[in-house]
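Design request, tokens follow.
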């Protein structure tokens, strides 16, 4: 891609680096003429969701940080299928190249470099960013001596969702922490461990752990002790060694808990040796002018001499006054021009965080500023809402400069879990924990045990978000509808129970053509031989001779209540668990507490009446169909 021009602005001049995810080019910003570094996602990953997500994560991490020891993000965008990041260009070498060329560094220089790495990490950690890949290859040494931390390509936003697959052991094996070697997530103290390894390498010229393969090196991080620094570099002060070894503790709780704490101890270690962390400003001295004696003049000389002396002084004063006037006018000119530039060509950055992108666009353009968008999924911010800006509000920029906006592209996408063959409770708990909205239906299955998931939409590994509607199909077992036609109601109840089925508690009746048909099943739904889930309710229609149907009046009194209550009256034959009738009543506080109704039963069996208020059994009463007074009073 050398000599290609991206976005009609960045002319790529040479390739300066290549990683597993991206290719880095030196480029010229044709608008400003400045050299920049352009990181382009490798073409083979343009359709790879994982690598695109990692590339976006680098842009997100960089957009949250502005620091003099961090390679700062200048622009982000796409040109055709090419995704790119524009970073400041650092003319110099990597710290790894410096160590390879010079061998071990002297202790004060190694400490100074480490302090600047820690300064960058402190800024990143305060912004919720864990670098996870601190190593000398990612530390840039500018030719003027400035230190810059680069490559947040696998940085992790500390409060975001679960690690993506393959990200848990990404750092270079010689520098990653024991917890990363175990496959656990990295934290801020993991970055401090890696910084300790880098300091060790600067002090000794070699890494503390090495081996024939990555697994061997990882095992040393977990179990081995490094060669003591004093054995390799006896001139390193013990105070500096103690700082380095504390940073390299295998137990995270024993390390420095912040980059600031480690930097402070390094400064104290330097001061113990008399090394200055920063050179003080030179003192300014004010010298008094010595009195000048004009040759040939004496104190108390004649008046001519005094006049000449006075004239000479007057001329000097006039010259000084003229020079002072010129200085003032020059100052006013340049000061006025500076004020003009300050007022006319600068702009204050408005606070657009939390705004819809269209609102942010209006405010920024009103201030004469442009903007670049970094699209990042978010469960916290609605789609097209600004979640972060850089620079922050009230910063001063030149008109025409760009503000980088992190804009929500919608909820975070993740792979749909596979819940098939889980129990309904297990699947619901897992999906609820991911914020998914779950509905369930049941289906007949002779292969999957009842209560287990036999199907799901979306399918496993489909990309979903928190707003995706998920439907689970739960096995209801398998039941075959028996042929109940011609059977008595009692025989039909038994047949349904034996088939793991139940009865719809609302019998239907049709006129019997002969007396013998009374009380037998005339029709059923579903029809016989249908395959259904277990516990399906079957609706029956009975033949009935109107003169032989038994109607029983009931009278139920419900306790007073200040709230609306639901009352259910269920009816079933003695010795049966199948309800043949069920009535539900909703009573408001002002409604009568007395319920009067009639129940119809098709035969002369003894029946029971159950009265539920809410879900609480209030009363149970057994009556025979021959009784004329079938009243039930729940206050008895």
């Amino acid at each position: 891609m050398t000599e290609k021009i991206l976005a009609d602005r960045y002319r790529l001049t040479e390739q300066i680096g290549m990683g597993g995810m991206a290719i880095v080019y030196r480029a010229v910003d044709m608008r400003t003429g400045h050299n920049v570094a352009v990181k382009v996602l490798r073409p083979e990953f343009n359709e790879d969701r994982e690598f695109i997500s990692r590339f976006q994560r680098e842009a997100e991490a960089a957009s949250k940080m502005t620091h003099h020891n961090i390679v700062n993000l200048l622009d982000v965008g796409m040109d055709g299928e090419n995704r790119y990041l524009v970073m400041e260009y650092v003319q110099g070498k990597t710290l790894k190249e410096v160590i390879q060329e010079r061998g071990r560094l002297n202790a004060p220089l190694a400490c100074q470099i480490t302090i600047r790495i820690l300064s960058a990490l402190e800024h990143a950690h305060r912004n919720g960013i864990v670098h996870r890949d601190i190593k000398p290859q990612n530390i840039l040494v500018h030719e003027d001596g400035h230190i810059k931390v680069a490559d947040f390509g696998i940085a992790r936003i500390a409060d975001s969702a679960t690690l993506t697959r393959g990200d848990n052991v990404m750092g270079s094996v010689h520098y990653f922490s024991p917890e990363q070697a175990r496959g656990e997530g990295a934290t801020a103290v993991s970055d401090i461990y890696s910084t300790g390894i880098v300091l060790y390498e600067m002090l000794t010229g070699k890494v503390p752990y090495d081996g024939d393969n990555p697994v061997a090196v990882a095992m040393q991080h977990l179990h081995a002790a490094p060669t003591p620094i004093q054995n390799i570099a006896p001139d390193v002060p013990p105070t500096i060694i103690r700082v380095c070894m504390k940073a390299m503790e295998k137990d995270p709780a024993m390390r420095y808990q912040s980059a600031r704490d480690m930097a402070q101890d390094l400064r104290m270690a330097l001061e113990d040796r008399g090394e200055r962390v920063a050179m003080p400003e030179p003192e300014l001295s004010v010298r008094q002018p010595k009195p000048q004696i004009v040759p040939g003049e004496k104190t108390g000389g004649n008046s001519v001499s005094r006049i000449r002396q006075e004239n000479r002084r007057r001329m000097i004063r006039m010259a000084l006054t003229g020079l002072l006037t010129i200085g003032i006018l020059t100052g006013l000119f340049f000061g006025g021009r500076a004020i003009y530039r300050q007022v006319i060509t600068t702009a204050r950055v408005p606070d657009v965080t939390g705004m819809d992108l269209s609102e942010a666009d209006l405010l920024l353009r009103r201030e004469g500023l442009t903007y670049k968008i970094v699209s990042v999924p978010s469960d916290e911010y609605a789609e097209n809402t600004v979640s972060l800006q850089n620079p922050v509000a009230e910063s001063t920029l030149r008109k025409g400069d760009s503000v980088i906006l992190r804009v929500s592209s919608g909820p975070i996408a993740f792979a749909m879990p596979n819940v098939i063959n889980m129990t309904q409770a297990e699947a619901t708990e897992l999906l609820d924990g991911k914020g998914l909205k779950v509905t369930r239906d049941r289906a007949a299955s002779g292969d999957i045990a009842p209560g287990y998931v036999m199907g799901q939409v979306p399918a496993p590994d489909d990309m979903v978000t928190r707003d995706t509607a998920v439907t689970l199909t739960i096995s209801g077992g398998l039941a075959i509808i028996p042929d109940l036609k011609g059977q008595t109601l009692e025989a039909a109840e038994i047949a349904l129970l034996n088939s793991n089925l139940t009865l719809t508690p609302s019998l239907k009746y049709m006129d019997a053509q002969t007396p013998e048909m009374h009380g037998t099943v005339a029709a059923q739904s579903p029809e016989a031989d249908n395959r259904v889930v277990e516990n399906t309710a079957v609706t029956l229609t009975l033949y009935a001779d109107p003169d032989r149907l038994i109607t029983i009046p009931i009278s139920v009194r419900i306790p007073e209540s200040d709230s609306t209550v639901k009352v259910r009256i269920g009816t079933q034959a003695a010795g049966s668990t199948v309800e043949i009738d069920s009535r539900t009543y909703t009573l408001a506080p002002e409604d009568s507490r007395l319920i009067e109704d009639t129940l119809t039963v098709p035969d002369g069996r003894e029946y029971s009446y159950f009265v539920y208020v809410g879900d609480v059994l209030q009363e149970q009463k057994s009556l025979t169909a021959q009784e004329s007074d079938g009243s039930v009073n729940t206050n008895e």
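Comment from the thread starter after seeing the answer: thanks! Residues 156-171, 274-301, 338-343, 626-636 have pLDDT under 50 and may be disordered.
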